[in-house]
Amino acid sequence: MNKIKLVVCWIFILSTTLSFAQDKKKNSNTLSGSGNGSACFNESSHVLNVGIGFGTRGYYHYTRGYGYSYHSGPMFSLSYEQALPKKIGPGYLGVGAYLGYQHAYLEFDNYYYNGNQYYYRHNWRYMLIAARAAYHLDILNSEKAELYFGAIIGIRYQSYSYETNSIDPNKNLYELRSNSIYPVGSLFVGGRWYFVPKVALFGEIGYGTSYLTLGVSFKL
What we know:
Elements: H1 2-26, E1 46-54, E2 68-72, E3 75-83, E4 91-113, E5 116-137, E6 145-164, E7 180-196, E8 199-207, E9 212-219
Antiparallel strand pairs: 1-3, 1-9, 2-4, 3-4, 4-5, 5-6, 6-7, 7-8, 8-9
């Protein structure tokens, strides 16, 4: 399933590439294909992204056995990006912030006593707070579509909860870990296509938070 999602994202980025290539060709007789008037990301851009990340590896790993089930949910993200007022080299640098949320759980439900079934459930909730930066090359930045690459760096707050209906007097000994804070980082490459002037679809492939993120961008 994750391979299918990655293929879909690659198709989206490829279609974005073709879209900005067509825009460049259409604007070839104007002042410049990378000028402020023909680029969807320039010095005045303020963009809000709402995304869902797939292929998340989860931050807790467990060797699953009989009676165990482990599930890592998608990464829901909200990010903001605005361009620096001056170009850096052959493009614009966008900087901003990133918020992410993910839930994962591990459950053991194969413990029987006196004919009753008991479960042990461990829940992790991850909140990511990070700075985000993305570079938008002029050559990959057209009127309606663009390709970009960047990184995020910040912290991950991990909250943990444990629940069970076991009557075992030592049931609390099975708790796994407490709340913690860890550094987090990710590299990504993405594409964005504006199907209307201020609303775009975007897709990103990366490593560190989600392998694949799909969502919607809004120009503010």
